[in-house]
Amino acid sequence: MADQEFHGQIGRTYNESEPWWPEETRAPEDAPNVLMIVLDDVGFGQLGCYGGLIDTPNIDRLAENGLQYNNFHTTAICSPTRSCLMTGRNHHSNGMAGITEITTGFPGYDGHIPHENGFLPEMLGEQGYSTHALGKWHLSPVEANSAAGPYDEWPLGRGFERFYGFLGADSDQYTPPLIYDNHQVEPPATPEEGYHFTEDIAARAIEFMTDAKQVNPDKPLFKYFCPGACHAPHQVPQEWADKYEGEFDMGWDEAREQILERQKEMGVVPENTDLSPQNEDVREWDSLSEDEHRLYSRMMEVFAGFLEHTDHQIEKLLDFLDELGELDDTLVMLVSDNGASPEGGPTGSLNENRFFNNIEENVEDNLDAIDDLGGPEYYNHYPWGWTWAGNTPFRRWKRETYRGGASDPMVVHWPNGIDAEGEMRDQFVHAIDLVPTILESIGIEAPDEIKGYSQSPIEGTSFAYSFDDPDAPEQHTTQYFEMLATRAIYHDGWRAVHPWPLDEPISAEDLSASSLEDSGWELYHVAEDFSEAHDVSDEHPEKLLELIQLWWSEAGKHNVLPLDSRGVARLAEPRPQPGKPRDRYVYHPSEQHVPENAAAKVLNRDHSITADLSIPASGAEGVLIAHGARSGGYSLFIEDGRLHYVHNYVGVEEYEVVADERVPEGDVSVSMELETTGEPDAQNGKGTPATVRLYYGDEQVGEGDLLTTIPISISIVAGLSCGRDAVNAVSDEYRDRSPFAFTGDIDRVTVDVSGEPFVHHEAEMDRILARE
To answer: CA 91 to CA 137: how far, in whole Å?
Structure first.
């Protein structure tokens, strides 16, 4: 403490001195708790209180005792929306034009949220709040997500005092890659013992609240609760899915009709709302086979159970706050981060990793798994017909700037601060508006400086004016949208939309800005046409031109330029990587896994793995190195005294090579060499074929062929581990003994990747966007 800050008196002795303590920072008098709940990939028409066909009684009770907004908007994709929710600035102003995996070297696109754009927990922490984050993060650059850091963009680096969840885009619900504060931990139980991630973070949220409140009950909380639900994989205990047996046999076309009717009855949408036109990518339900009906209905039942199960975990938080007597004095804001997700494609998927690797699935094979959907064996996702229904009454879905991608549910509950109950609000609201609304509700200003960083202006507009005045004129009157070169602009009840010229953004070829212009803008008078059902660009060309010009003006203000329409070419953009480029990676036994983006890249290239070991006279067994999970990967391990190499081809088949001889005792080097024997066909789900050779020292002790290998993505959830296979075992050979830790001593494991890799940029772009 500097001398000038001390307000006591210092004499020669204690008796001549006066002690002084600085006052504890306290929140404003009667400041409420704040609970922000962010659902993942939940569409406008999926919650019960928004006319959906899924029971969400606890979210519904928030709506019944609070407010619903039917004109709330997001960026149409996860990380960008979450950056808006945390900072009150637009996603390009945050450097978060897209997900952190497709960054480019421009201010709006680099994936680094500047410290000049302070996070809400940083603001509230300085005002005497406890700050906790639970669940999905996905706001730090992928190159920073390993145990090597840097940690300044992890949750604890951006104002949260506690964190429990995962850093990336999605997670297995049964075996998540957990981070506790700033370090990796294993789940506290196994799937067989009943573990589920959403249940775990609900329990941890209550634990964090208990820890804080029992010591300082007057200190308010900011709780950021972000379950991975309902992002794929759709995983939930079977009884939750079974509740919905037969409930979706009518199919997605009829579901849209039913949802719209319910929305009108409930006042969620205006009476004159029309369903948006038929989505050309979605097959009509009546054209499908009986087997398809059966499979796709079950996939939707699993999703429904997943969402209701999530609602039940939210109930636990609400009930705990109620037991504390603080629920009515907690400002609850519940939103979804974007529209429902189309990543299941037209047929749905049993294993997301197959989708990411361009491996087609068929109804016959998937029907064999129908009784186990939602369990730990599968990473299932529903067909995009259900996505479209989930976004009723809008067009399209996540990743696109139609309302189906960018219009989402929002529920606000604060009985002590809002007199209105069970009412709908139709003022335009965007994700950037939550921060200024929370600050106004608490009664504090956005700080001018945080941790020495001068703060940029908040770009959102508080919507607290609408809390008790349903007819208040909207104050957020202009908002641009841009996502993967799809664009839109809202202004005073009108919305212009510039769709991507191809049907599916993830498979688009490089496109110039001029070709985007040529594809044409559309115009919707959303004040009268809620669902964007009727393009009126021909009737109002002057209005359309006005909005196009306004879009470019807003783009210039918020780092949207240069407009990047290159599609897959973004992947070839040089970007920072952890450490210097290298051909050799050295690993040591650790309980910390290395995330996929930071691990040695072994796919589609010659490579070798060498483990320097000490084998006791009694022998040793266990995993030397493993990368991946049940859904795909590789593992080098010793079992029954022999060296084994397994390549798990995306959960479809395990190719195994076993040594002919036992590993000798004492100090020994064992190795695997993989030699590619052909070209990959990534577009059709095939990596390079290869020959694998096993060695003890210089002596070859085994050889075998891999007919094909993983072409693009090793795993959607698991990284690389040395000395164990802890997250979700790669191989069935030892799954029942996981983590199958090595019982001898490992000095080091060296992965040599000096072989030239083959990279298919378009297929890799498909994988990254699908994960989002």
So the answer is: 15
